[in-house]
Amino acid sequence: MASKHTIATRHAQGIRARFASRFLRSLLRLRRRSNRFGGSQSNDEGIGKRIRTDRIKIAAYASMARAVGPRRTWSRALLFKLRNRARIHGVSRKRCLVSEKKRVTRNKVVVAISREPSRADTLRKLVPGGDSMDTCVLLEETAHYIKCLATQVTVMQSIADRLLL
Amino acid sequence: MRPCSREMQGMNSLFNPSSQIPLQDLQNQQIQNSHFDPNLSSNEDFLEQMLSSCSWADPKSPWDLNPPTNLPFPTNNSSSNSAKHRDLFNETPSSNSDSNNVGFRNNFDESVILASKLRQHQISCGNGAAVSDAAKMMLPQQLLMAVARGGLSLNDDIDGSLSQGGDGSIQGLFNGFGAGSMNGTDGASNQSMQHFNHPQGGAMQSPNLGAQGAAATTAVMNQPQASGSNGGAPAQPRQRVRARRGQATDPHSIAERLRRERIAERMKALQELVPNANKTDKASMLDEIIDYVKFLQLQVKVLSMSRLGGAAAVAPLVADMSSEAGGDCIQANDNGGSLARTTNGSQTASTNDNSLTVTEHQVAKMMEEDMGTAMQYLQGKGLCLMPISLATAISTATCHNRTSGIISSHAPMHQSNGEGPTSPSMSVLTVQSMTMGNGGGDGFAKDAASVSKP
Question: Where is this region: Disordered (chain B) (predicted)?
């Protein structure tokens, strides 16, 4: 199985296959974890489903970032953020938000100019790790990010189609 | 003044091939602006008048607009005189760009005025001016430039390099003029005088003025810098290349142009990725990109929500993924386990049909207890109830292209739970169609089941 997995994650496979395999494995992990804690947990209306939604979403982003690898700035930034969030999430939720804000502001430019956020600033907020990039690099990272997001969406959609049969 | 202006145009036509800066308008304007007495004949009085009439020291430094550069311009000692003349004409675009709202409040006003007066005087002196006249012309010209430089250096606003350059430049200019110009003055000046007679064939390039003014001003601004940096180099600031738009020799503008080009090519690459990318405007293109990224992130969120029912049944999918070397096929062989787990079902199914049956049983059971929970359960799976007739119609409509497995089963209530009063005419139909690699377009066509109560 390990050799098959490594074969599947060769670069020749393309990002789609790598993302799909990682995402499926993380979904499996999620299911095992949720079932270990009892079947009733997933039946909670409202908060339970939201938590599960978030976990699936985070799993999707994490698997995509790992499939891309540390080659890209946005994937590195995304992995860093998720790792910190996972670390801090274990401690407490409130502290997580605060420290995330602190982390974000540290990267931002210190000069506090009260101007309308330009389009480049909006894009920086959307793309992970976009704060510490100049415009030229930002556009390049955005292109790769869009490509990976599109493959992520198609893979997730096909998985959903298959699973709900 | 008109013949003088035409002569000016002639002079301009001489320099137009090299510079493409329309100087006719400039000079015409300056002729109007200058308070030059054309009737003055003697050189000495002329010089005095020039010096007295020029206005010094506009305290606002125009140098702030353009960053000072010390780029040494290509110097050509051979054609000193023509370069000097060119210099004079170089000064004029700045003032005209001023009038064209480039916003260049220049210290060149005085030098421009001096230049125009000089030219006029030269012209009025006649074309066949004597050598002595030409020589005397050179002298006020040199003094003009020197004074202009000195006037510039007097300004406090000019940054240090420029002021130092200004001081040094005067010396340099003097040396340059002394070394280069006065020696070759006679023949060159005669030549230049004859050039003044050149017929006014130069095309009016007034539209280029605003565009060229910017490029020219950078070149002009660089000139004192270059002269300052050269220091005592003889006649070097005179032979610099005038920059055209898009061909500026300034390293800053080159770097900026490179940056702009890189951004443009990245935008083009992005345009192919983003749909509806027919916008030519960079700003609206950025808006489209932002919207598309937000849309994709929202889609990921929605898909993770719809995964609530089926996330558990991943094991067979993973097995299939690892066994296949190919990329895209994800075959779902077993998803009954998910339904069993999530719904506390008692049955464990291993085939599609069984899973559907299990779903239906579950739905039927829940419908007994509470319609609301049944509906929510179905919604969580992305299913809905629909009449059988509609389901069959949809299935026949969509089944021709794709491998669609449509499973319809009637599960009357009395079969599933065998208890309680059930309406025999109620039918639960589950319609699901497999779509291979479909976009999200007809997602609602799949997984549809609706109930119709008679």
Answer: 63-103, 183-251
B239-285 pLDDT, tens digit each: 766 666 666 678 889 999 999 999 999 988 888 888 887 878 888 88
Rg (CA), chain A: 18
Q: How far apart are CA B198 and CA A40, in angstroms?
A: 98
Contacts of A39 in chain B (CB under 8 A): 341-342, 344
Q: Indicate the pLDDT class of residue B124, thresholds 50, 70 and 90.
A: low
- Among B111, B134, B105, smallest CA distance to B122 is for B134
Question: Are the beta carbons of A159 and B297 separated by less than 8 Å?
Answer: no
Structural domain count of chain A: 1
CB-CB under 8 Å, A142 with B311: no
Whole-number Å distance between alpha carbons of A71 and B174: 60
Report the C-alpha gap between B391 and B451 in whole angstroms.
11
Q: Which amino acid is at B305?
A: M
Closest residue to A149, CB basis, from B296, B381, B435: B296
Distances (CA, A) of A24 to A17, B106, B411: 11, 69, 33
d(CA B288, CA B282): 10
The reply to whether residue B307 touches residue A127, judged by beta carbons under 8 angstroms, is: no
- The distance of A68 to chain B (nearest Cα, Å) reads 16
Between CA B405 and CA B349 the distance in angstroms is: 18
Q: Name the residue among A153, A100, A151 with its Cα closest to residue A128.
A: A100
Q: Could you read off the pLDDT of B173-202 as tens digits, one per residue? A: 445 444 444 444 444 444 444 444 444 444
Answer yes or no: pTM beyond 0.80.
no
Which of the residue ranges A64-68, B114-118, B281-285, B442-446 would you say has the lowest mean pLDDT?
B442-446
Q: Which residue of A has its CA nearest to B407?
A: A165
d(CA B246, CA B254): 9
Chain-chain contact of B289 with A34 (C-beta, under 8 angstroms):
no
Tokens matching residue B233: 């180099």
Q: How far apart are CA B105 and CA B65, in angstroms?
A: 10
User: What is the C-alpha to C-alpha distance for residues B146 and B126, in angstroms, rounded to an integer?
Assistant: 25
Domain holding A117, by residue range, is: 2-164
Give dist(CA B448, CA B442) in Å, integer: 11
Chain B interface mutation, best of A4, A23, A165, highest count of B Cβ atoms under 10 Å: A165
- Give how far Cα B6 sits from Cα of B10, B86, B318, Å: 6, 18, 86
Contact A136 B259 (CB under 8 A): yes
Q: Which of residues 395-414 of B touch A (CB under 8 A)?
A: 405
Nearest residue, CB atoms, A162 vs list B303, B317, B326:
B317
What pLDDT digit, counting tens, does each position of B287-329 carry? 889 999 999 999 988 888 876 655 445 555 555 555 554 444 4
Q: What is the length of chain A?
A: 165
